UniProtKB/TrEMBL annotation:
Record-stated family: Belongs to the annexin family.
Residues binding Ca(2+), per UniProt: F24, G26, G49, E89, K277, G279, A317, D319, T320, E325
Name of this chain's protein: Annexin
UniProt source species: Salvia splendens
TM ranges: none
GO MF, one example: calcium-dependent phospholipid binding
PROSITE patterns per record: ANNEXIN_1 (PS00223), ANNEXIN_2 (PS51897)
Gene3D superfamilies noted in UniProt: Annexin
Amino acid sequence: MSTLCVPSQVPPVAEDCEQLHKAFSGKGKKFRNAFDFTDSDNRLIDRWGTNEDLIISILGRRNASQRKLIRHCYAETYGEDLLKALDKELSSDFERVVLVSVLDPPERDAYLANEATKKWTASNQVLVEIACTRSPKQLNLAKEAYHARFKKSLEEDVAYHTTGDFRKLLVPLVSTYRYSGDEVDLRLAKSEAKILHQKIAAKEYSCDDVIRILTTRSKAQINATLNQYKNDFGNDVNKDLKADPKDEFLALLRATVKCLVFPEKYFEKVLRLAMNKLGTDEWALTRVVVTRAEVDMKTIKELYEKRSSVPLDKAIAKDTHGDYEKMLLTLIGVV
């Protein structure tokens, strides 16, 4: 479930645009410190600067369709893309979380996928997230957005920037259009559970059958197959895929399985790893909060607290600060 707190009465789009335009000039921002400007009655007056709180109160409390309308209206009214206006006014992690939030979901996924193709194998999990946690239609829209923005296909970039077993798995993952219905074939599930067990036992992790099953079957069918796997062979498939915890391809296979059958648990772990004693992975934190706020963040929050014994909002407040912290907390429902 979503954690986004959209007001019960949302102001007209034109009003939101006007308020954002004012926020960029600091209008409406009040100060109460030694450097405040006051009039003769000691009343606070406006001072030049960006009103970050106003930006958060609008963009952090609108859903994707509402932000899309705001962006369109802002461009028509002020002759400038809202993204460019935000880019000029904001900076650092706060800028990134706001910009990624404003992007339409398909455009956002295209951007995230493109960023992932530029990095090393650890970023391959971002491609898995997009390929396996989105619906077939959402994945298709992301690929169309990728084509429009980068003038090439997602598939060709993934193929170009990966090699070996990684390419063998990732290219069909981003190319597929899975059946999205609930129907399952139990006999097929039993036979393919046996195939998976045989190949995993033989350490043939990247064989054609394993790749075919994970990249083409519907999520319902894969779930049935993996349940059959556990019933027949005693272990979750991901436990059997931990033969070598340091093997990056096995880690990617486990991420694929988890994203297909239990994405909330996958994203909970990403958040947990993003905020640890070794430091904060702001990019992972931003990506998960923004992309899941309107989807399943409520469940992710519950899983996080159960696993870490700390509420997610407390963990975020400990590891982040300032306007970046405020925007993240707003997106996960802390208003």
